[in-house]
Design brief:
It is built from ten helices and no strands. By secondary structure, it is mostly helical. The longest helix is centred in the C-terminal third of the chain and has 20 residues.
């Protein structure tokens, strides 16, 4: 593969934003290309939360492993909608994947995010909600002490038990993705790629249920 492509005009995945395909493409820029949209890393064809995660995974994956992400690009084209479950479920996926391996400083933020996500999940039912709850429980089991710390911290902020009505999903996604990339583990690229794949599967299950039977989201 050359600096542009094997065929001279298709963009090649690389980190960051690019003015044109001739200079490469990030994951979402490539999606805009496939969708026939104006060149952008924020195309209308993909849910904003999923697009944000895809940009993070693209930029934080090593140069040697990034090209493998391209197999998932067609799956995000046309995957959009206004379902309020998507940002919460993607936040759960990202935070639960990062919590067991992230640094202690990031664990505190991720654990707090998971507690708040768990509160938000109470307003919905369904298999995707149950999977999210199971992921939260599994993550806390793999990171002992983080749940108690997060609950105590939230109680100090909201002593009367006020419910959290929203979550900054982009902040959770960024903290989680960076936490995985910076973790002292050998398979950070694989973990990031798996996070993106699972996130796409969950979005398909929510936003395109008619096609979801062939892609049953996995828990691990």
């Amino acid at each position: 593969m050359t600096a542009t492509s094997t065929e001279g005009f298709l963009p090649v995945l690389s980190a960051g934003r690019h003015r044109s395909a001739k200079r490469g493409a990030c994951f979402m820029e490539y999606a805009s290309f496939l969708a026939g949209e104006r060149w952008s890393d924020r195309p209308a064809c993909t849910h904003p939360a999923l697009a944000a995660l895809a940009r993070l995974v693209n930029d934080l994956t090593s140069d040697g492993a990034r090209s493998a992400l391209s197999t998932h690009i067609p799956s995000v084209v046309g995957l959009n909608g206004d379902d309020p479950r998507v940002p919460v479920i993607l936040s759960v996926l990202a935070a639960s994947s990062a919590l067991p391996v992230a640094s202690s400083m990031r664990q505190s933020a991720l654990a707090t995010g998971l507690i708040r996500c768990e509160q938000l999940l109470d307003q919905w039912d369904g298999p995707e909600i149950e999977r999210a709850r199971m992921r939260i429980r599994a993550a806390f089991l793999l990171a002992p002490g983080t749940e108690d710390w997060a609950k105590e911290f939230i109680d100090q902020l909201s002593p009367r038990g006020a419910r959290v009505l929203a979550i900054n999903d982009e902040a959770v996604l960024r903290t989680a993705a960076i936490g995985i990339a910076d973790a002292c583990i050998e398979n950070a690229d694989d973990r990031l790629a798996r996070l993106l794949e699972q996130s796409i599967d969950e979005c398909i299950a929510i936003l395109a249920p008619a096609t979801a039977e062939e892609r049953v989201p996995a828990l691990v």
